[in-house]
C-alpha cells in the first residue's frame, strides 16, 4: 500500500486564527533578541559543542496523550499508580497550558519544535496535494518546515531514540534511532472517529525505521505484539461481561487499535533501553481515546441520556485500566535504565473536567463533571531525576487537587526545556522558553542563537 493512495474528500483543516501570527511579528521578535543579546551578555554563538557536554545519564520522556491530573489523582491517592507517585514525590510537577487546536498533529509538532503552525507548517491531519488538484493527502514529516528537538539534539551529537511520535513518518536521519508513527488514508476513510486516526506501524510500509538496517529487528516486535494482542489486552482490561452495541463495539475496537500501537512502541523502547542514549522519547496515544470516548461510562450520571447499565459494566474501568497500564510501562522501561537517569512525563491536554467551584473526586454521586469535553484543559508535566529540581518537602497527595497545581509553562516551552537540559542554546525564533522551575540548575541567563534552522547535522547514523 502506498502512503499516497487515493484519499476521500475531506474538508481541509484550518489553523486557529489565534495562531496565525503575522510574519512581521516573528521578524520583530527575532530582531529584538538580536539587539538585546549583546547588552545582557547572552551567548549568541554556536553554544556548547558536543565535546563540551557533561553526560548526566539518559533522559526518558514519556508523552501520554490526554493524561489528565483530575483523572490521575484519585488513582494516585489509592496507590494504583506507584511509579508515577514515586516520580511526583521525588521531583517537580506542574500543569501545561495547551493550545486551541483540536488537531493533534498540529499541537504535538508545536511541542516538538517550540514553534507555531505558521512556522512549522503542519496544519492538521489532511492536506491538499501539492499538485493543486482537488485531492487530499496526509501531512507527513516532510511537510514540517522547522527542526524538532530530535534534529537539534542530532546537530549537537546527543544520541536519541524517538519512538511513536506524531509527524515522524517517513523517518529522518537522526543521530540515533527513530521509529515512526505512521498514519494511512485508509484509517481516515474507515471512520470519522478521531480514535481511528491514531497512527501506528503498518505492515509492509517502508521508511518506518531509521537506521534502515534495524527495520527487521524492530518491526518484528510489532508483529509479535499484534499476535499477542488478545492476551495482552486481557491483561490490561478486564473481560467485557456484557455484549457490546454497534457504537460501543466501534469505540472498543478503536481503543484496542491504540493499545496495540502503544504496546508495540513500549516493547520497542524496552528493547532499546539497554543501549546508550542521551534522550529516549516515547509517545503513547491511548490516553486521549480512553479519556474522551469512555468518560460517560466512568461518570454516567453527568451525561444525558446516561449509558445503559450493561455498557457501564463493560467500560467503567477503561480509563483507570489504561492509566495503570501506562504506569507499569513507565516502571518497566525506567527499571532497565542506569540508576543515574531522569524522567519527564508530559501531556498536551486533559479532558476538561473542571467545575466552576469543585474538583473531580472519586465518587460519581458527587462528581461535578460537566459534559463539555475539549482540548483546552491543561496538560500534565512531571520531571524527576538527575538534572531536575527535587522536591524540598513531602507532597500531600490526599489534599492535592488539579486546580491547585500551578501552570508552569506552555506546549511551546517543552522543546526549549529539553535543549536547556542538554546545555544547548535556545533558538531566538522559538516561541517557547525553558521552564526554569523544573531544572535543577537553571541557567542564570538563557543562551540564545538566532536559529537552529541553518545548522547542518554534525553526524547521523
Task: Tell me what the structure shows.
There is one protein chain. This protein is of the alpha/beta class and 461 residues long. It has 14 helices and 13 strands. A nine-stranded mixed beta sheet has the order 7-6-5-8-1-9-10-2-11, sandwiched between helices. The longest helix is centred in the middle third of the chain and has 27 residues, at 246-272. The radius of gyration is 22 Å and the shape is globular. The two termini are 28 Å apart. Mean pLDDT is 81; it is low at 1-21, 32-51, 191-196, 354-375 and 457-461.
Topology of this structure?
Elements: H1 23-40, E1 59-64, H2 69-77, H3 82-90, E2 92-97, H4 104-113, H5 117-120, E3 126-128, E4 136-138, H6 149-155, E5 160-163, E6 176-179, H7 185-190, E7 209-210, H8 215-236, H9 246-272, E8 279-284, H10 286-293, H11 295-298, H12 309-315, H13 318-335, E9 342-346, E10 379-385, E11 407-410, H14 414-421, E12 426-427, E13 448-449
Parallel strand pairs: 1-8, 1-9, 2-11, 5-6, 5-8, 12-13
Antiparallel strand pairs: 2-10, 3-4, 6-7, 9-10
Helix pairs in contact: 8-9, 9-10, 10-13
Output the keywords.
globular; single chain; alpha/beta; two-stranded antiparallel ribbon; 461 residues; 12% strand; disordered C terminus; disordered N terminus
